[in-house]
Amino acid sequence: MSARRLRTGGVLTTGLIGVLCLVSLHPGSCGVREWTVVGYFAGDGDLGKAVERYQTQILMGARLAGWNAALQTDRTNRYGRPAASRQLLTWDEDRPVASEVPLASAEGGVDMGAASTLAATLRWAREAAPAEKYALIVLGHGNAVGDGPEGRAAVATDASAANALSPAELAAGLEDGMGGEVVEVVFLDCCHGASLETAFMLRRGAKYMCASGGRVASPGVQWAKVLAAAGESGAADGRELVRQTLIAAGPGGTENEDALRLTGVDLGALDEVAEALSRFVQVATDAIAEIAPVVTEARCRAEAWEPTPAVADASGFFGALGRGTEDLQVAEAALAVSRAVGACQTGGGRGDAAGNGIGIFFPGAFQEIPETYGDSEESLPAATGWSEFIQAYGDRLRGLLDRAASGEVSLEAQTAG
Q1: Does residue 195 sit in the same domain as residue 78?
Q2: In 3D, which of 414, 322, 408, 412 has the Cα closest to residue 365?
């Protein structure tokens, strides 16, 4: 890649893939812009091409919107070695200025799975491309609770560094890198990013989140289209930027219509979700012996995103449980959680106004709860006791199965709870 700084009479080119754009329709002055899009791309291995596409799309879209862009990338180069780079798009009056910024640790790559790397990226973006509002796009391989090292969820994996960025580390990187300032929106372009656990961790550092509860396949979001539309509409906040992303993720918004099932989340509503969930845990755990069968039925009815059956659609599960149980206290508490989860969703792609779902960890009877689940005081299970409920449910099922195997109870008795 060329490290030249290019500004050619209103036609922007980059040393990346030679993006050509028209003269800006959004005049401004040097200094603070309305938006800066920060890209954090863990592109080792098979994501190298996706990273190139995202770099091109975001630089083009930011250019059309009249916004800044600051992108940090770590990917495997043509020689099979990890290499890091930074691309910057800022403005000199009404003219875009594109540059590739030297990165001291570029040779050999950087550890994109470390909170300190994310924090350093955000500090650089704020200094080099100051703005009134910031949007963070994280691209990488993600996994749900129970699937990663030590059972931790991850939103970006750095294979060469053998490390993964957990939701807790993402939140820590945001807090450190933004210096207490809140990011308007965080886009998690990874598999299994839309979970209540992740959203709860981010609620202090960002206003909105957009992610998928299931898999995210290439080619991903059409960022040039999203950013250009958001700039034209005068996107006032993260909610509008999420809305434009969900529109682009709908039918015809991607080369592969099955690639994206995104959900927008208002992170400011997560405290209400946690309060409702805490209340549910209190009443449901005490009644687990009686409600276990309907819990099992509700868990089976709730959508689970392959290949991670330990994650269930939260609104679907609590809604089915509330409608199915005869215990009025449990029903009221479960339906309150379902309503709170639904209220925090700002919409979903593919024309689904209720959103495409946000997950919660709910393992089967024979899957252990990772010791790392809830090990942070700031986590959802620690704040609500959710891990205590799923542990009580698992203990109940295992006890019934053991009794059935010994002939102590019949299959009919087991089904009846």
Answers
A1: yes
A2: 414
Same domain, 316 and 342: yes
Considering the domain boundaries, does residue 358 fall inside one? yes
Tell me how far apart the alpha carbons of residues 200 and 358 are, in angstroms, rounded to a whole number.
12
Task: Point out the least confidently predicted range of 15-24, 27-36, 199-208, 252-261.
Answer: 15-24
- DSSP tag of 59: H
Instruction: Verify that 229 and 93 share a domain, yes or no.
Output: yes
pLDDT tens-digit profile of 45-96? 778 788 888 899 999 999 999 999 999 998 766 656 667 889 999 999 889 9
Which helix (H) or strand (E) covers residue 207, if one does?
strand 206-212
The answer to whether residues 260 and 305 belong to one domain is: no
The structure tokens listed for 42 are: 């863990």
Residue ending a domain, among 240, 270, 300, is 270
Tell me which residue range forms the domain holding 345.
271-416
Structure tokens at 399: 């006890």
Instruction: Give which of 199, 362, 324, 339 is closest to 279, Cα–Cα.
Output: 339
Measured CA to CA, the distance from residue 84 to residue 174 in angstroms comes to 20
Helix, strand or coil, per DSSP, at residue 127: helix
In this structure, are 249 and 388 located in the same domain?
no
The DSSP secondary-structure symbol of 150 reads: G
**Residue 39 forms beta bridges with which residues?**
71, 137
3-state SS assignment for residue 307: coil
Greatest CA span in the chain, whole angstroms? 84
Same domain, 221 and 288: no
CB 85 within 8 A of CB 59: no
CA dist list (Å): 364 to 151, 312, 388, 391, 392: 15, 11, 14, 10, 12
* Residue 235 in tokens: 């996107």
* Domains contained in the chain, number: 2
Same domain for 140 and 99: yes
Is the pLDDT at 16 greater than 50, yes or no?
A: no
Q: Which residues contact 161 (CB under 8 A, 6 or more apart)?
A: 82, 109, 110, 111, 112, 113, 114
Report the pLDDT averaged over residues 109-129: 94
